[in-house]
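Reminder to self: tokens first, then the designed residues, so the page reads top to bottom the way the pipeline ran.
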């Protein structure tokens, strides 16, 4: 049973009550992420996630975690381009403690200069670690290339310069324009009753830093580029194009196209480029989907010696895909999506997170039956039309990390190599 309430304070509360479990997954999801940062704030949303565990006005850093772990629970936080989530998983008898801790770290953090300095060192190490991983750097690069100049495309971790510049007042200023009741969803899944959760929230009476969240601007995708020369055996390459936003028209058809093209080991790209030709260690396709925009992405890792034939093989597959995609491929993709829905419905944290995202973006919940109906109603012609639109638009962003000559070949690939009718 799923219930949704909007409290007089502006908070949204959603609960999925389950009688077949003994635990509760509970989260406070704030619609504040990388895209809400100003140029001098890159990395701030993620830094707030770290500072949530450095203590509050009522709890020390140790006590914040101990109050959860002493009861056998887990506490975590995560930052994305659009949101920051603070979550716990606990025995049903202890969820009220979890709620109190979560609202405490969200609404009453204690930003001591000594703690900020300590955590700056930690995050700078995290940045350095990500820089050492070509795959991670490539994902940063494709965001920078596709959303050139827009905060939504900036690395979530920020840069050493911006992280080192953060002060208590900058953290407070960011929260004062983003951490508001109307941008926050409290979500729970498991052995918890909706009305009891509402009563507990009202008893705590959390005071949020902001009255109302500042409006966002629409990001503009671009055909930009990002190339970084590295001494690596494999050269890591990515290609991106604009995709439908979360829940937008044609979003399901586009998701199927991406799945069929590179969503698994039986996909077109994996079979053609890796299995048949041995031209890449890895190749896949996926989406980066946000509330008002999105990206389709193809990512691969190949040696400098095989970049040229890999590019030609990729070109052929992209052009051919719109012409001869099959009904069998679509059936398999639909099965993948239906299986994913079923598996997600068995994960309490997944249910809580899904409900929060749907409410944040769409304003209501999309029941599983409705999603399954959308899956079944999407036709092969729908998928073909979406893919042909992608190819005709021809606004592709590129990113690469690795060998200089290989990156030159990738940069020079025009991407406008169309067959008749494409």
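Designed residues (422 positions):
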């Amino acid at each position: 049973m799923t219930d949704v309430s909007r409290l007089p304070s502006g908070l949204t509360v959603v609960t999925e009550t389950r009688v077949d479990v003994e635990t509760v997954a509970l989260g406070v999801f704030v619609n504040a992420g990388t895209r809400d940062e100003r140029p001098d704030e890159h990395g701030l949303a993620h830094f707030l996630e770290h500072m949530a565990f450095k203590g509050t006005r009522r709890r020390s850093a140790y006590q914040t975690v101990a109050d959860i772990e002493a009861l056998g629970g887990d506490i975590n936080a995560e930052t994305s381009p659009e949101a920051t989530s603070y979550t716990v998983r606990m025995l049903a008898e202890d969820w009220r403690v979890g709620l109190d801790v979560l609202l405490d770290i969200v609404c009453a953090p204690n930003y001591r200069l000594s703690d900020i300095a300590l955590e700056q060192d930690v995050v700078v190490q995290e940045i350095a670690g990500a820089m050492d991983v070509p795959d991670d750097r490539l994902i940063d690069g494709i965001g920078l290339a596709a959303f050139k100049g827009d905060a939504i495309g900036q690395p979530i971790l920020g840069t050493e310069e911006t992280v080192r510049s953060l002060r208590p007042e900058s953290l407070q200023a960011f929260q004062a324009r983003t951490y508001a009741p109307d941008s926050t969803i409290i979500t729970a899944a498991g052995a918890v009753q909706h009305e009891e959760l509402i009563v507990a929230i009202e008893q705590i009476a959390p005071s949020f830093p902001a009255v109302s969240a500042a409006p966002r601007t629409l990001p503009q995708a671009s055909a930009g580029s990002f190339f970084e020369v590295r001494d690596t055996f494999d050269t890591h390459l990515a290609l991106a194009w604009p995709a439908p936003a979360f829940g937008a028209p044609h979003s399901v058809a586009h998701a199927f196209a991406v799945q069929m093209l590179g969503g698994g080991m039986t996909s077109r790209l994996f079979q053609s480029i890796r299995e048949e030709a041995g031209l890449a260690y890895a190749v896949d396709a996926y989406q980066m989907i946000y509330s008002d925009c999105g990206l389709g992405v193809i990512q691969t890792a190949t040696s400098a010696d095989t970049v040229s034939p890999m590019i030609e093989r990729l070109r052929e597959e992209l052009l051919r895909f719109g012409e001869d995609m099959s009904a069998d491929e679509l059936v398999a993709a639909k099965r993948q999506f239906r299986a994913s829905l079923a598996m997600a419905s068995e994960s309490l944290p997944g249910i809580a997170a899904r409900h929060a995202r749907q409410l944040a973006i769409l304003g209501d919940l999309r029941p599983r039956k409705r999603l399954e109906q959308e899956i079944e109603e999407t036709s092969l012609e729908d998928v073909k039309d979406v893919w042909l639109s992608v190819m005709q638009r021809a606004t592709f962003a590129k990113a690469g990390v690795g060998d200089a000559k290989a990156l030159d070949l990738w940069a020079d690939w025009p991407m406008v190599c169309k067959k008749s009718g494409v």
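The CA atoms of residues 13 and 86 lie 15 Å apart.
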